[in-house]
């Protein structure tokens, strides 16, 4: 005879030990959500000299996506979940987009913008958000224009120039011919090379300015004009070991190799280039890191991707270490001396407390390879060899 439903349930309970019922797992709590945003401010510019340098549509965003995947890999075991909103803005819409993100309760903003826009948006965010500068290289942003609510994952001009200078002095190439562009960013980079020359004992034998006339960068006869004009531009320079180019807008430096009047190497913005990242790096676990990015983005990783990845990995590492999703607690830990993050560059990366610049090695790269990594072994420091790159504590003009 079939029992009624209620009697069936009672019969089943009778054969299940009460101890087993007591051990039934409790419902899991909702994961802690850590929210961030990546705000990229796109400024209209002429195409780069080489079509191989055309920026992909997801530049910066792809690195952030990999960071979120990496954060979630650990987060799922810690009861934490990470997300990053992606916003592409123009200089005209950036302020309103930032206000919208802050209004949605986002307290970590990864910013890819030029120097002036970075300062303006950081001031707009104020104490409502921690801003990660993942693009702007200006030394002033780490100096007289520094902001307490900004962390710099992009290396500064001074760090890049010092990284290259150390290697050139190790090679015993101390005589430099400095050629810089006419844009303010070019002049700022040139000043970083002057400072590096003084710091490490190099001599700038001459400086010349290559003026940007705003013309087309590639024409049917472009290579003919370059081949005829650049040797003339570089002739009659005093004897030098290497040409240093300071060309932040990609106007002329890419043409310099093989077009100098004298048979000389080129470095700086072309030739041997100091970078935060290079897609050919394979040491220190970088091969696996590169492979994961390429599977995700179907292209090699660029510096903007790496710097965005670093920013969100800092947030993820802070959340893991503190076991918290509270923005204030995460910010305080990231700014503390106990914080460090892995960056696939041979050592842990830490934050300078005097200007909030992330310490990191500088890769010296050719088109295909990483030729060297600075700091060079010969340069020592009482705190960290990484502080031989860039503005050290006694030199800083930053006051928070």
Automatic annotation (TrEMBL):
Belongs to the leucine-binding protein family. GO terms for biological process: amino acid transport. Keywords: Amino-acid transport, Signal, Transport. Residues 1-22 form the signal peptide. Pfam families: Peripla_BP_6. The keyword Signal applies. Residues 62-365 form the Leucine-binding protein domain. InterPro entries: ABC_transptr_sub-bd_PQQ (IPR022478), BCAA_transport (IPR051010), Leu-bd (IPR028081), Peripla_BP_I (IPR028082). This is Amino acid/amide ABC transporter substrate-binding protein, HAAT family. It comes from the Bacteria.
């Amino acid at each position: 005879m079939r029992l009624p439903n209620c009697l069936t349930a009672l019969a089943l309970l009778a054969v299940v030990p009460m101890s087993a019922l007591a051990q039934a797992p409790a419902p899991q709590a909702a994961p802690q959500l850590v929210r961030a945003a990546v705000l990229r401010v796109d400024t209209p510019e002429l195409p780069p000299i080489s079509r191989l340098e055309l920026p992909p549509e997801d530049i910066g965003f792809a690195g952030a996506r990999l960071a979120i995947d990496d954060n979630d890999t650990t987060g799922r075991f810690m009861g934490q979940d990470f997300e990053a909103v992606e916003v592409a803005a123009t200089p005209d819409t950036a302020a309103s987009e930032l206000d919208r993100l802050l209004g949605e309760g986002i307290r970590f903003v990864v910013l890819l913008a030029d120097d002036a826009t970075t300062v303006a948006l950081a001031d707009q965010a104020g104490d409502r958000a921690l801003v990660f500068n993942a693009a702007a290289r200006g030394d002033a942003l780490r100096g007289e224009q520094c902001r307490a609510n900004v962390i710099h994952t992009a290396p500064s001009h001074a760090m890049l120039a010092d990284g290259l200078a150390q290697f050139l002095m190790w090679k015993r190439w101390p005589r430099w011919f400095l050629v810089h562009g006419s844009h303010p960013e070019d002049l700022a980079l040139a000043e970083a090379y002057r400072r590096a020359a003084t710091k490490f004992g190099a001599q700038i034998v001459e400086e010349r300015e290559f003026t940007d006339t705003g013309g087309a960068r590639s024409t049917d006869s472009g290579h003919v004009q370059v081949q005829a004009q650049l040797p003339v531009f570089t002739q009659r320079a005093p004897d030098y070991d290497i040409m240093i180019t300071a060309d932040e807008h990609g106007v002329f430096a890419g043409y310099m190799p093989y077009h100098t009047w004298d048979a000389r190497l080129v470095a700086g913005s072309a030739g041997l280039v100091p970078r935060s990242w290079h897609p050919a790096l394979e040491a220190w676990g970088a091969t696996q890191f590169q492979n994961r990015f390429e599977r995700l983005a179907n292209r090699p990783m660029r510096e903007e991707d790496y710097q965005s990845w670093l920013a969100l990995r800092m947030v993820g590492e802070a959340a893991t270490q503190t076991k918290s999703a509270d923005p204030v607690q995460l910010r305080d830990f990231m700014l503390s001396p106990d914080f460090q993050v892995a960056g696939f560059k041979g050592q842990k990366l830490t934050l300078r407390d005097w200007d909030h610049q992330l310490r990191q090695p500088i890769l010296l790269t050719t088109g295909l390879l990483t030729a060297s990594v600075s700091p060079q072994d010969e340069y020592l420091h009482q705190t960290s060899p990484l502080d031989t790159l860039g503005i050290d504590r006694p030199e800083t003009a930053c006051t928070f």
